[in-house]
């Protein structure tokens, strides 16, 4: 993730809806974690998982999100997941 943040093309889309639900989910997780000033390890502890799982969920190439996992993350972040069909 650190390398992506240095990429000018990545910076252009950071925090903006991309139209790709997987990228938008990764961005939402990263943004919510950073808003709470949590490390991946701290979020993992709150969510009852490992830092490696959080890193995978924040990966821009991950494609296997489950609603159950997203609910656990949202709860750990004091948020609720929202799914929309557009």
TrEMBL record:
<dbReference type="InterPro" id="IPR001387">
    <property type="entry name" value="Cro/C1-type_HTH"/>
</dbReference>
<dbReference type="Pfam" id="PF01381">
    <property type="entry name" value="HTH_3"/>
</dbReference>
<protein>
    <recommendedName>
        <fullName>HTH cro/C1-type domain-containing protein</fullName>
    </recommendedName>
</protein>
<feature type="domain" description="HTH cro/C1-type">
    <location>
        <begin position="29"/>
        <end position="84"/>
    </location>
</feature>
<dbReference type="InterPro" id="IPR010982">
    <property type="entry name" value="Lambda_DNA-bd_dom_sf"/>
</dbReference>
<dbReference type="GO" id="GO:0003677">
    <property type="term" value="F:DNA binding"/>
</dbReference>
